[in-house]
C-alpha cells in the first residue's frame, strides 16, 4: 500500500478540486442582485476577461519563444531532455488556468457579496470567503495535481517507475523544473503586469476623478472606475494567486531535489517501503495533505452575529488559519516519522557527513511554520492601524508631506531588522536541523497552507469590489457598512498575506539556490573569488533597478489613463450629469495595453541577466564550473537584495496606506483631533501616493524576481555543471546502460557503463565518447575483478 | 639609495604639510573684512569650535573604552600585540587633528572669500580654493605621515628594520591596522554626527525661519542661521575630510597587507633593492607621490577673467583635477616598474599560482583611475542641473509632491545600474590583472589624488558660507553674485566628490575584505554554508536599518531645533525687528548635543554587530575558522548593500536638490515657464526635504559603515584565524625563534621553531605549547636531516 503513496497527492488534489467545484457552484447559485448591480459586475467581469485575453496573447508568444529556446538547448546539450519543453508549457498552462478560474470566480463573487450584504454580515462573509476558498483550492489543487502528475510521468519515463539511481532521479527532477519555470513565468506576467495595471488604473482614476473633478471614489461617472475595480482583481487576486502557485511548485520541487541528494549521501539508495524514494515523496505528500487541511480550515471560517465588527471577522479568519497551521504541524510529524528513514546521513559543507534523525527534519518543518507566522506578525506590526509605527507616521504628517515621507521610508527600512533576523535564524536553524533539505522542508511546511492563505487573501479584494458595486449601484448605507467591515479586515489580511508571500518566496529561493548548487556539482560559492564577488554586486543591484522600472511603469501608464479620463470628461456630453455614458472599455484597454507593454523591460532584465552571465563567459571559453559559481553569486545577490527591498517597499507602502486611513476615524495630533481634509491628511495622501506602487507593484514583484532568477539558474544548471561519476550508483543490480555526461571545460563527454557479473567476477564495460571542438573520440575499456576492485577502478577513471 | 625609499613618503608628506602651512599663512593674511562680517564669521568659527570640543569629549571617552578593550584583547590573545593600542590612539588623534585644522581654516577662509569677492571673482576663487587646498593637503599629509611613521616604527620594532619573513610582516601590519581603526572611528563621529548636525540645523532653520516666519535664508534674525552655517563646515568639510582620511589610510594599509601576501606567494622572500619589501612599500610610495602631485594640481586652479561664469570656474577645477590624475598614472607606471619585480607569482583562488608581470599591476592602477572618474561622471549625470533625469523629476513635480518623490526615488535607484556595473567591472578586471593586490592598488591609485579631491570638495562649503556671510552682513549684490557662482560650482563638485567618496569607500572595503581573508587564513567565504548565507542576509540588512536610524535622528534633532527657534522668536523682544539679539549659541548647542547623542545608536549597530557575530558563537564553542567565514559573509553583505544604498540615497538626494534648484532659473512644464513659488516648485521643495537627510546624512554614512565594518573584521582577524605554519619562511638564514600561534577550535597553540645548521645537517628544534581549557602542555621535538627533509617534517607536523 505504501508504494501507492506516490499517487496520494494526486488523489488529495482532486478531492480539493472537487470541493472547490462544489463551492464554486454554491457561490454561483447565490443571488447576483438587480439590474444596475449586475450591469456593473458584468463590466468588471468583462474588463477582467479583456485583460486576461490580452495577457494570454502575449503569454502565448512568450511561451512559444521560450519553448523553442528550451527545445534548441535540449537538442544541443545532452544533459537536458526535450520533455522539459512539455513540462514548461504545462506549467504555464496550469498556472494560467488557475489564475483564470480565480479571477472569474472573484469577479462573479463580488456582486453576490453585495447582494448577500443586503441580508446580513454573516452571509456576506460566507459568500465572499466562499469565493476566496474557490480561488485558494483551485490554485493549490492545480499546482499539486500538475506537479505530481508530471513527476509520476517522468518517474516512469526515465526510471521505469522504480528506483534506479540518483543520477536518473536528477534527470527526472531537472526535467520537472520546466513545470516550475512555466508556472513562474506566468507569475511574472500576472504579478508584475497586474501590479502595473492595478496602480495605473487606481492612480489614474483618483487623479482626475477625486482630485480634478471632485467626485467620490467608485463613482460610476468616472470612466476609469471599472478599470480600477478590475485592477483589484488583476493585481490582488490573479497576481497573488500566480505568485503563490509559483512558490508552491518551486518549493516542492526544490525539496524533492534535495531529498534526492539525501539518498545520494546515504550511498545512492535506501531501503524503504516507498520504493526507496521516501525523502523525494515527502514534500509532495505534505503539499497534498495541506490541501485537505486548508479545506478543513476554510470550513471553520464563519461568524454568527449580524452585529459583528472587524474583530470578530478577524477572529473567524484567525481560527481557520491557526487550526490549519496546527494540523500541518501534526501532519508533518506523522509523515516525517512514516516516510523518512529513522536516521539519515547528510553531507554538510565543510563538516562532512552527519547522522540526522528524522525528528530533526520534523524540527525544520516547525521552524518553517513559526517563521511564516512570525513574519506575518512583523508585517502586521509595522503596517497595522493603531500600531506605534503608524501613529508615528501620522504625527509626522503634521509637519508636511516631506516628514511624512521620511517617516514612512524609515518605517519600511527599520522593518527589515526583525524580518531579516528571523530569516537568518530560520536559515541557520533549519539548516542545523537537517541541512538544506531541512531548509526546503521548512519552506514546504510553510507553504502547505497556501490554499488557506489564498482564501484569506482573495476575500479582501472581493469585499473591496463588493463595496465598490454597492457604491456605484447606490445601495442602502448598511450594505456599504457591512462590506466596509469585510474590506477593512481584508486590508489587514492583505498586509499579512504579503508578509507570507515574501517569506515563502525567500525560503523558496533559498531551497532553489541549494538545489542549484547540488545540480551543478560545484564546491559551494566562494565570494572571495573576484568574479563571484562582482556578480554578487550585480545581483544586489538588479532588484533596485527592477523596482525603479516598475515604479516608472506605473507613472507612465497612469499618465495615459489621466489623459483618457480627461478626454472623456471633455468630449462625452452629459457625463458629469449622469446622462452620458462613460466608455469604461477604453480605460480598461489602456490599463491592459500599458501594463503589458511596461512589464517588458523589467521582465527582460529578470530573464536576461542570468542568461547573459551564463552564456557570455561561455562564448569566451570560461570554465563552466567557474561560470556556475558566478551565477550562484548573482543568485545570492538577487535574493539578499530582493528580500530586503520586498520587505522595505511592502511595509513602507502598507504603513503609508494605513497612516492615511487613520485620518478617517480621526487622529490626535498635538492634542487636537485631526480628520480627513486637514493639511496633515493631505500630507498623508501624498505619502500614500508614493506607497501605492511600492506595496502593489514594485514590492510584490520582488518575489517573482528572486524566484524566477533562481529557477532560471536551476534550469541552466545541467548545462553548466553536468553530472559527474559521483552520481552513479554502483549497486550490484546495476547492469543497464547509464549515460553520464560531463561538461567541464566546454568538453562534452558521454560515458556508458555496462556492469555485469560473470560467475564471481564483475565486469564493467566503459565506453567514453568525447566531443571536443566538433571532433568525436570514442574509447572503450573493460574492467574485471571483484566488485570492489571494479568500483575502485571506475572511481579512479 | 633605494633602501632609503621607505622614508620617502614621510619626506613627501612633510613637504606637503609645509606647503599647506605656507598656504595657510597666506590665507590668514588676507583681509577678513569689516566689523559685521567679522562678527558673523567669528560666530561660525566659535560654533564650529563648540561642536569640535563637544565631539572631542565624547571621542576621548570612546577612545579610552576602545583602547582598554584592545589592550585586554592584546594581553589575552597572543596573536595581538599591545602596540595596536598606541597605533589606535594615534590614528584617532591624527584624524581628529586633520579635521580640526581643516575646519578652522574653512571657517577662517569663508569671511576672507566674501571680502575677496568685493574686489574680483578670480581673487575670491583664489582665497576659497586656497582654504580648500589647506584642508586637502592637511588631511592627506597627516594621513601619510602618520601611517608611514608607524609602519617604520613597527618595522624596526618587530623586524629590526630588515626583512625576516612574511609572518613578522603580518604582525607589523596587523598592529598598524590599529592606526586605521582609530582614523575610521573618528570618521564615524565626524561623518555620521556631522551629517545629523548639518541637516538638523538646516531643516530647523528652514522650517521656522523660511516657512513659518517668512524670512529669507541666512537671515541674521534667525537664531538657527549660525548653526546652519556651522553645519556646512561640520558635515561637508570635517565629515568629508575624516571620511577620506579614513579611506586613504585603510586603502594603503590593505594594499600593504596584500603586498606582503605577494611576497609569501613568491616563496616567502624576494630579492629587490628595497630590502625585499618592494610590494609592501609601493602603496605608500604612490600615496606620498600623490601629495606632491595634488600640490601641483592645486596650483593650476585659477581663472583670470572677472566676468567668468560657472563654466570657466569649473574648467579651472577640472584642469587641476585631470592633470593630477594624468600625473598619477605616469607616476604609477614609473613606481610599479621600479619597485616591483618584473614578474611575480600570485595565488588565485581555485586557479593556483599565476605569473604576473609588473605591468599588469600598472594596468590595475589605471582601472582604479578610470573607475574613479567614471563613477564621478555617473553621479554628475544623475544629479546634474539640466541633465535628463533632473528634467524628468521637474516634469513630474507638476502633478504634485507624490510623483516628484517617486521620480526622485526611481532616479536614485536606477543610478545604481551603471555605478554597480562599473564596480563589478573594476573588481573583475583589476583582479584579473593582478589578483586582490591589483584591486587594492586600483584603490590606492584612485586615492592618490585625495588632497586634490578634498581641495575641490572643501571649496564648495567655504563659498556657500561666504555667500551666507555676504547675505547676513548685507553686502552689495555683486558680492553675493560672485560667491553664488562659486557656490553653484561647489554644488556640482559636492556631487562628484560624493561619487568619489563612495567609489573609494567601496574599493577600500574590498581591499580590506581581501586582507581579512588572508589574515584569517580561511579558504575563502562559501555562501553555500547556511550560517555564512544567514550572515550575508544580516549584513545586507544593516545598512538599511542604519540609514533609517540616521534619518530618524535628523528628524528628532530638527524638531528640537524647531522648538528652540520658536521659543526665541516668542520670548526675545524685538528679534524680528532686528533690535533684539538672537541666542545663536543655544541653537549651536542643541545641534551639537542632539547630533552626538543621536549617532550613538547607529554607531553601536556598526560596531556591535561584527563583535557579536565574532564573539557570541565563540562563547558557544563554535570553530574559529567557521566564525571567520561567517564574519566574512557579514562583511560582504554590508559592503554590497551599503554601496547600493549609498549610491541610491546620494543620487536621489542630489537629484531632488537640483530639481528644486532648477525652478530658480525657471523651467518649461507643459509648454509653460514655471518659477519659484509655483505649485510644482512646492512639490519639488517637498522632494528636497526628503532628499536632504538622504544626501547629507544617511547616504554618506554608508561609506563609514562599510569601511568600519571591514576594519573591525580586520582587527578581529588575528583572534579568529591566527597564523598557520604556512606563514613561516624556512629560509636557510632563518635561525631565530619564531612564534607561531594557531587558534583553531579555541585552543591556543604556540610553536617555537629554531632552525640551525650543524655542518651539512639542518636541525630544527620545535617547542609546541598548547593551552586548552587553562591547562598548559609543552612538547619539544627535534628534527634533523637535509634542509628539504626537515622542511617536509615541519610541514607534516
TrEMBL record, chains A, B:
It holds the Pfam family H_PPase. Belongs to the H(+)-translocating pyrophosphatase (TC 3.A.10) family. K(+)-stimulated subfamily. Sodium pump that utilizes the energy of pyrophosphate hydrolysis as the driving force for Na(+) movement across the membrane. Keywords: Cell membrane, Hydrolase, Ion transport, Magnesium, Membrane, Potassium, Sodium, Sodium transport, Translocase, Transmembrane, Transmembrane helix, Transport. Its EC number is 7.2.3.1. It catalyses: Na(+)(in) + diphosphate + H2O = Na(+)(out) + 2 phosphate + H(+). Signal peptide: none annotated. The chain crosses the membrane at residues 6-22, 58-76, 82-103, 134-159, 245-263, 275-299, 319-340, 361-385, 405-428, 435-456, 500-519, 531-551, 599-620, 627-648, 704-721. GO terms for cellular component: endomembrane system; plasma membrane. This is Putative K(+)-stimulated pyrophosphate-energized sodium pump. Requires K(+) for maximal activity. Its cofactor is Mg(2+). GO terms for molecular function: diphosphate hydrolysis-driven proton transmembrane transporter activity; inorganic diphosphate phosphatase activity; magnesium ion binding; potassium ion binding. It is found in: Cell membrane; Endomembrane system. Its main location: membrane. It is an enzyme of class 7 (translocase). InterPro entries: PPase-energised_H-pump. It comes from Gillisia hiemivivida. It is a multi-pass membrane protein. Homodimer. The keyword Electron transport does not apply. The record marks 494 as: Determinant of potassium dependence. GO terms for biological process: sodium ion transport.
